[in-house]
Amino acid sequence: AHVAYPSTEELRLALVACGINLAVEVVDNIRRSYDTDNSGSFEFDEFIQLLVECRLYDQCFEARLAQPTLLTPLNRISPVLGQSLAGAGQGLIMLDKSAFFSMV
User: Which of 1, 54, 98, 100 qualifies as a FRET site for 25, CA 20 to 30 Å off?
Assistant: First the structure.
């Protein structure tokens, strides 16, 4: 039987080492979505792309958490989402980091 490398837990620990702490289910989804050749293992370029994009998403999440009105690449891509997140108080939906990563 073919064993995925890195495993979901190994990938989760690599992301934690980069300061990105996510739920195991989210990391498993990330691992599967970045295995672009469906080999069950990461090629070097797939792994680097994953790390770079996860760092970007993490920085966007943290910036929006600190300042909900801040323009980030994510609300340039989805202005409606950006505007809805920028609205203070009424109807503002807060996501934890794992839920955020599940969406992107």
Answer: 1
